[in-house]
């Protein structure tokens, strides 16, 4: 029987619409009071999705509490399954880790210097207060780590990935401390994952007052590190795994609040089936075989949620419009650029006045973005007045701000759904195929030139392999009616978010130039936006979970069909979106002009030419 957390002091209760009462001890209550955590109250987890499902408007604060609750329930279930000898062995390894922390030694092998630097900055906070209650110590560490996983989230959460990926270096260049941390983090954190980098940086800035009752180094390892082995690796699966509290809570919460059908999962069976066992390679987190139906349902429901809710055409439109509006503002020389530098939420400069006592970073939230766009709208509000000459860029920003702030329908998708998209693809197939054939012929010619040039066997073979791989991808892209999506995926899939955003911007500009003569005069002031949406199905390269069988943890068997079905569906999902936005006085789509056949015809005519220009530039790389 597991111990009652109430034995270690006062327990706080908070009412949650999804989980009922969420309970946490005094040590966690103090941490929740930190401005970094309180900032999550002012960040919506699904700002773009609320365009389609207005009920999905909960804050990351409530989501983090729900994820923390599930992590705590899972750990209670795991501890209850461990035998006396397993508890003793597990406790001994945790105690050994803490002893190392107190001496300032990193007790686990790390692949990057960032983890070691992080631990060196926090190891002094570990205190010995008699023999710790290991169950409560790990429970509090897991709860704190899950809570702190979200402190590095961008304003509007993942909605602003494109903007921050292209602008983060410019916004943070004056913050030398963060720039140094970011440089070290790039050996561990993938490019574009700025919320992870900023989370690690902010962890080092949390004052000891908020953490003195917690094993802080253990919390940091569980919440942010590259350590995936031993007791740390096993426990990290509860905080940041393929099936963790955050992923479960997101689905259940959005299903309940938004009225979607994607979230009917057996939460209790999921966390009660979790177990930790010791094998040949140390401790591992796994699940009982009885949980297969619940796990497969979670995998399927999560993918369906992203496909029909997160990647809904209108959700993608609002996400794209918000990113482009900020990117264009940053380029607009007449706009007050100092306002944009206020979006740097890595800035931990401490502000003290009669009314404020906190770090600057804790003040950057959704409201900061919205207020910035309101100021832009006010500054450019007379942009359409004939008496005030305005550039096309200023008119575009004004149209984007109106579309986001007031949800004005001055935009329209070129295709609403996969059926429309496949219809356009069929019309484009012949023209796009011709462009691909032309590019492939040029590649073959290049390959022959390199083969006869005598530039060196190794260099020649390397170039030939690159060209052969390119031709193979071209051949694959020419199959089926998804040719437009396939070509776009070839151009965009291997790029990071910043490079992808730049290429989509170029495509937009090229398409506008090509289509200008094909559209009626009322649409000459329009411009195009592209978006390419992807989702990481798994934390790693594949869905890697262990299943308990006769006291051992084994890889999942071949009977697990949900994962392969989801991977297949994701490969064939419509990822490319294109929108046309009106920047003239027609702030509404009067008479459905944006949905007219002229717009579709312009796209079908111009897109092959855009591909040709892309391939001309691409050919120069060989």
Description:
The structure is a single chain. This protein is α+β, with helices and mostly antiparallel strands. It folds into 3 domains: 5-313, Hypothetical protein af1432; 333-408, no CATH class; 418-541 and 560-619, no CATH class. The protein is 54% helix and 9% strand. The chain is built from 24 helices and 11 strands. The chain has helices spanning 26-32, 35-38, 60-81, 84-102, 113-122, 134-148, 161-172, 176-185, 194-203, 216-223, 230-239, 245-258, 267-272, 292-310, 313-331, 337-340, 366-379, 392-405, 418-453, 457-477, 483-492, 497-515, 561-571, 597-619, and strands at residues 11-16, 20-25, 274-279, 282-288, 350-352, 357-359, 411-413, 526-532, 546-549, 552-555, 576-582. A 4-stranded mixed sheet has the order 3-4-9-10. It is globular, with a radius of gyration of 27 Å. Mean pLDDT is 77; it is low at 1-8, 105-114, 121-131 and 454-458.
